Amino acid sequence: MSLLIKSSLPRRLKTKLFTYFCWLTACISIVVLLSILGTLLAKGLPALDLSIFKHDTRNLGLRNAMIGSLMMTLIAIIVAAPISILTATFLVESKKQTRLVTITRFTNDILLSTPSVIVGLFIYTLIVAHTRFSGFAGIIALAVIAMPMITRASEDVLYLVSPMLKEAAIALGIPRWRVILMIVYRSAKTGLITAVILATARIMGESAPLLFTSAKNSFLSFDLSRPMESLPVLIFENAMQPYPELQSLAWTAALMITLFVLLMNLSARWIARDK
Fold this sequence. Notes:
Layout: H1 2-44, H2 51-54, H3 63-93, H4 99-112, H5 116-126, H6 135-159, H7 163-171, H8 176-187, H9 189-204, H10 208-211, H11 231-238, H12 244-271
Helix pairs in contact: 1-12, 3-6, 3-9, 4-6, 5-6, 6-9, 7-8, 9-12, 11-12
């Protein structure tokens, strides 16, 4: 009996140490997150007023940058999400590990680990060098960055759908395409939405690919065939300026991106909630 008690003491000690370590790392993460949010609020709120929504960057406003970022990000996600989810469905539903499946998964892994600046240079060489800086080039660059992220996350989510659920539906005579559309996607709805939200949050803060594709435009423009301003590019350029008003505008733009991402996460949770 005494031997059992002695042998259990190291286990209890390890369990307590591991629990305390988890609490410590969680507290450190929360402190870092709160410090970032506090800094954004302290430096971004003073310049946050209605005037920045009415004026363009030429007049120390954010109207053109906000509209440009929203347009390019939303269109890029609209383009990337269906392609990525269908690709993930192909990888999951393929019964055999064919060469096409292996090549597709390997290519997606390469794209997932590719730095965003390389994607920007690639789109610049492929499109911008033969045409000009434009919103379309920025959309393509953002879509290329988002697609491997959504594909990998969607593939992991689709693997979690019970095979017995699909087999039961197929046994009832339901076509396979309808099983995927009405059962698999519906079961994995929350995970798929989360994958899209994570990709949206990632590309909304990307500045490197937009520097080589959409460039900047100091005026409001809805023409995607011309250069278009964006919040990340504005932050990158104004943060290096020696003028306090431009630096304050960069902090306000960073705060706006954070609020956009928070709003998207809350909206996704509301949409994906259980009825």
